[in-house]
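Dear colleague,

Thank you for sharing your sequence with our group. We've completed the structure prediction you requested, and as agreed, I am returning the results in plain text so they can be pasted directly into your records. Please verify that the sequence below matches your submission; if there's any discrepancy, let me know and we will rerun it promptly.
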Amino acid sequence: MRDATLCSSEMRHHYILVNKPFGVLSQFTPEGDRPTLRNLGSFPPTVYPAGRLDADSEGLLLLTDDNEVKHRLTEPRFQHPRTYLVQVEQVPTEEALENLRSGVTIEKRKTRPVEVRLLDKEPDLPLRVVPIRFRKNVSTAWLEMSLREGRNRQVRRMTASIGHPTLRLVRIRIGVLSLEGLSVGEHRELTRSEIIHLRQSLNLSA
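Please find the predicted structure tokens below.
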């Protein structure tokens, strides 16, 4: 019965993972001469991103026409986690990391607590198409941050608030969905088991 239901769901909806490159807008509508998702391939006309990434951010996007899934992923009250690899200027102290974990004030409103850890080595990521602008004699560090809200440019504003501007930002997970195995600029449909897992993780029937 579950398989029959899911087959019906698959006929109705699309679920597409995209590894968005730097500089690409998270939309299909043209905006000047800036590249959009249309530049990454042909997509069903009904799908839209379930949450965005800024043009200067990279990584995982989910495109879907399943409005239930989009609502659960983007509505703040569901507090659905998103995980990022974040390269920042200089190495944050433990005190600075604790400030991030407990929440910082952005535009007179405190952010929700986040999970943050300092990586002991640079993550295995492909080089960015547009190289990072390093400052001479200024060290850098990589953080892994998991947020449960999606305010405008939140990660960048949070790291800036503790004195560590973001140099590079890559989203690697959206809840149970992962960037693993998806090269920059590539996209693929979710498998049947991934759709089941995704919908169950959002407390939706498969």
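Summary note from our side: Residues 6 and 193 are 10 Å apart (CA to CA).

Kind regards,
the structure core
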